[in-house]
## 1
Amino acid sequence: MKIPTYKKILDYWFFKNGKINKINSITKKYITKSSIDYGEPTCWACGEHWNGKYDISGEYNKKDIYKAWQSSPLERCHIIPDSLGGLNVPSNIFLMCKDCHVESPDTIYSGIFFSWLDNKKTILDIRYKMIIETFNGLGIDISKKHIYESINSVFKTKKTRKNFYCFLEKNTSSHFGVISPFTIIGALQLYINKPS
């Protein structure tokens, strides 16, 4: 049996009877961990989304979703590897970036895979840590209450972090695909001080 198509994988994890799947507990626990939007192809393990390169803009339907996810560099990854008897069925396939695919455990126990996901740092978590380290490196004492509260309000939840990263992507640029820590700090100052 061939590996399932992106359409079949997305139908299994995201949709039920043509509607967005609100029932699948694995979907709730793991796939929504990275604040995934159906119109934004994203690694289900780390949240990598290639700065929105494959996102759908404006209104979209299921056909647009299938096309966007298939055009992204996401790999169809076995939870239990086919070399160890894992089936080529949507319930055994996770969509991940190449780095997460290489990093993910290859065992006959799906619980090990999901334990790895539980402990996997997302792109947002990694960026948050880098920002805090940059503040420390610049001698900015984020332990001062007013500074800490301002920064914490931006990074308090995955949703608020995602909002900041959307602002960052729209208002900054990079060198060779890397946004410098100082660019992030400057954007953070603008974001915190922007009119509501």
## 2
Amino acid sequence: MAGLKSIVTGREYTCALTAHGGVKCWGKNDFGQLGNGTVSGRGQLKPVDVIGLTNGATALAAGESHSCVVTAIGGAKCWGSNDFGQLGDGTTHFSLTPVDVIFSSSIYMPIALHNLCPDYLDDFSDPGSGWEAGEDEELSVEYLNDEYRVLIKPAGAIYGIAAPTSKRQDYVVEIDARWEGNSGVSYGLIFGIVGNYEQFYTFEVNTDSQDLRLYRYDASGWSPLGGKGSPLINYGTAINHLKVIRKGSAITLEINGSDQGTWFDGTISGYTGVGLIVSSYSDVPNADARFDNFTLSCAPKAGSSSGTGAPATPASNAPDLIPVNVGPDRLTAPAWFRRLPSQNSWR
């Protein structure tokens, strides 16, 4: 079984968490601890999918005859034996499939999830890994040939696509990106996403001019934080590896393994989302971007390098792991992308 994040064992059964957030179990199944909707006195000799958990799980644990996961939106699900209420659903009935753990208002699961900070890797080989797929008159997003495709149809449009991961505070986010056919104006990473895209940062590259830009968006609109030309940006349709290290107010940008500098801005702080951004030229439609190897991990504990920029007073931003409603631009529910306000750089 390729692409595993972790394996846990209970009493005579085993479960695995895949790189895409799915869960598979095998072995003994007398209390439904395999989570596949069956119960049997005979052992299951090969891994089976846990029903409802082909993606979206970020952490996995096993008890004697039951298992639990933390989900990407900050909840928990359990299945299997429940004679002492270990499934947390308010009953003592065992369950053959995952049930939601019921928390009182005094328990806040996102805190536990953020502290755990599990790594997230998606090579887009599994169309069920959780990214949105669909199409309307302006945007087409899909899994295609082990990549994630973002096609912006009209000229002069910008779209942000949030990743199906939990929100983090200090993190490293990376992506391989390229253009298919004619290049658009920019692709890159969107991070620091708050609410319905009310605030966020973008790290974008223009492969025609070999420039990079760091922007902040908030109630005041777009604000340039930094930018420069870089010959390390691969030209045209070649692949570029982009990386953002966010630690406190420090934002470090890397391109193809080379440090491009650190800027400081604390306007957006707390637990925020990450994702992808693509934009088309103002006079050229059909910007077709392809992404691969999206990675999200904890920021290194070592101090970041010095750079340019001006520090700002951090804003209060409480953790929020519930998927946001992104309004009229959503294609299907639950939607994670939105057309963003226009700005003048490179457009």
## 3
Amino acid sequence: MRFTNKNILVTGGNSGIGLATARAFAAEGGRVAITGRNVDTLRAARATLGDDSVAIVSDAGSLSDIKDLTEQLRNDLGRLDAVFVNAGIAKFGAASDIDESTWDETFDANIKGPYFLIQKLAPLMTNGGSIVLNGSVNAHVGMPGSSVYAASKAALLSLRRTLSAELIPQGIRVNVVSRDPSPHRSTHDWASPKPNSAKWLPASRARLRSVGSQNPTRSPRVSSTWPATTVRSSSAANSSSTAE
């Protein structure tokens, strides 16, 4: 069992990519802690992860929740060997439709939250620990309607570079994994776009299909010994909410 005696946090681990990742770690012997905003889905997810798993209600964009999460992890687990910073939101729309609240909500969950989460959790991490950020293809391609979401994910790429250098003395590695769009639950509504958004929806879908067909080999490559070794991928998307 590759992750026996390893403590691993998966934010947004109550659904979609996060839950699938948490289950994979648990199946390999890891003790997993998951977060999410929805109590019911957290309970259901925890039931599939084993009796020693931990489920914590936490909003990825709330600094007070991050502080409380850190204390609970300190009390329940004591240390962390790996963190998958997966929770986030995706709201798409034409630039002319985006309002300040959408900007703030997206950046709170997708970049401010991860930044301060790592800041608070770094003292709990073991030497040789690994932090993986969930990125997106939208940080690499110019998909119409993704301006705010893409900017938040591009910021994660920069964060990975700087924090990798800063956390080297602690023996902590920071990487980004990006993947193709996933079919799980989303905060955006492709079926009922705002008037200005309708014109770019077909082009956006076509753009993502084109990226996938042109880069069939650029899917995530996860080392069989993760989190003991690096996880990298250069292209993909998480076009959904994993913070609920």
## 4
Amino acid sequence: MQQLSQSEQDLLYLLRCAVYDQPAGAQRTAGMDLQAVLQHAQRHMVSALAAAPLIALWGDKPGSPLNDQAKGIPSGQANSEETSQSLRDAWRKADARAIRRWALFSTERAQICECLSRRGIWHMPLKGSVLQSHFPSPHMRESSDVDILFDVSFRSEVHDLMVERGYTASTFGHHDLYRKPPIYNFEMHLGLVSYESSQVSYDYFRDVRWWLVPSPDDPYSLRFIDEDFYVYMVFHAAEHAHVGGTGIRTIVDFHVANQAMGETLDRDYIALVLGYLGLDGYERTARSLARKLFGEQGGGLDADEEEMLADCMASGVYGSVEGRVEHKFVRLERESGSVHSAKAAYVLGRMFPPYENMSRYNDFLKEHPAALPLFWAKRIAGAVVQRAKWRELGEAVRR
């Protein structure tokens, strides 16, 4: 395994302090390169979480006095109070931005969900919106968007609702994307799996509505039972890890979820479902890695855990195009036995997805299979509009 840098190790230390709501140690942070650590934290979208133990160490008020050990000045850099103050302010600003984002998103989400309920549309917030409640403070589980599963039979009504609220709409496979200044980004999910997911996963999650339970005070506000939430969390994390990579925030999520729900979860049920989905091995490794990194007992990592940690630290929160291409190539090359055949299959698969995948969330295409070439043409035309994204994909393919 590639050795983690000192700043990456420092980030893991701060995250471990944060999940237990403890301040960082003055001696441990002495000489810590806070600028480099902050850059890693931002890349993994854990800035607010990592900031918490530092802010607790420094005191609540900006500009509060620091002893020399707690300044956190990078090695070899002049220990000036001005530099120290600038670094502390950068961390506090990262925390403040996360608080503002959480406040804006949570208020907007509540209003949108209320509108959906008034219209008789069942809905369920997903992923980070649920996990936030298990963190020491909800803003510490940062997210760039809000994901909501909803009754797809009301898709046009939801579109009209979001447009009325000032959003612009785009369609991306299994979700409709709505954006509005200054920061709002809502993914309204037609289903829980993408058109690129395995058929087994698609079939399992296809009729998820009938598993969900209503909130006590709102029959249209639905939720998973804890076991199904955990299964979907594992599935979503594994999808990202296998497609393009996922960052250390995912491992923090595993730790926080198991700390919050672990003692009451029906592990036999979870093992049965994850075994059916082929994700039992991934879950075991991720849960064990989370326990060793952030648990009270710690422990040395085995080879699988070391590899997962290295992948997470290299990927960042959303992975990379290179990682997505690499993972796809590994599978295609194994199937075809040739690098050139794998490249050709990859490009053709991106341009001309099969009918079974394209029709998953498109009722018109389900009823009119002959229209598939038109949807391919639309897909290619959209790619032309997003030339930068496809140029990045092309460069990754050539590498």
